[in-house]
């Protein structure tokens, strides 16, 4: 068996799993109160793990939630903005966008023709999708390796939607 590429983890989700997550993690509605509750849930999960992350929730161009936990830095906020722009442009998770480029034997940075100072197809930003509406925003985490950022967001969405 070939070892994973340096930019991937061995247990990283594949494209099919990422697409399944997106089709499953859909809201019936998404309000300001939902953003607060989801953000607080993410803070709680991150604190349990002592994760040095920043957390952000945007809807329709408005920041509804932001938290910077101990150990996070201003760089995490810059990563959040870059990952969120990928979700806004492609309408799917930042990690899925990067995985699709890797599956074609290239990278987002090499082939997207987008400014890497403004866009990052790294894990951690996930679309907020409302049933029968579409993508209305993004929830983003930055501070961990990209697969762990992605997994933290997915775990919070699963818990929130299964309440």
TrEMBL record:
Lineage of producing organism: Bacteria, Bacillati, Actinomycetota, Actinomycetes, Kitasatosporales
Assigned protein family: Belongs to the UPF0303 family.
Source superkingdom: Bacteria
Gene3D superfamilies xrefs: Haem-degrading domain
Any single Pfam family the record assigns to this protein: HbpS-like
Protein's name in the database: UPF0303 protein HCJ95_21780
Family matches, as InterPro entries: PduO/GlcC-like, PduO/GlcC-like_sf, YBR137W-like
């Amino acid at each position: 068996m070939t070892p994973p590429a340096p930019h991937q983890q061995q247990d990283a989700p594949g494209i099919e799993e990422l697409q399944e997550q997106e089709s499953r993690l859909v809201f019936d509605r998404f309000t300001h109160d939902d953003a607060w509750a989801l953000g607080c849930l993410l803070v709680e999960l991150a604190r349990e793990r002592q994760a040095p992350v920043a957390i952000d929730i945007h809807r329709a161009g408005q920041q509804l939630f932001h938290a910077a936990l101990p150990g996070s830095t201003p760089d995490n906020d810059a990563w959040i903005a870059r990952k969120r722009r990928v979700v806004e442009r492609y309408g799917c998770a930042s990690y899925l966008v990067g995985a699709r480029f890797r599956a074609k034997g290239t990278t987002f940075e090499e082939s997207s023709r987008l400014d890497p100072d403004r866009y990052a197809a790294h894990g951690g930003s996930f679309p907020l999708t409302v049933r029968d509406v579409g993508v209305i925003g993004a929830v983003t985490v930055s501070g961990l390796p990209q697969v762990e950022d992605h997994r933290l967001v997915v775990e919070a969405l699963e818990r929130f939607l299964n309440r």
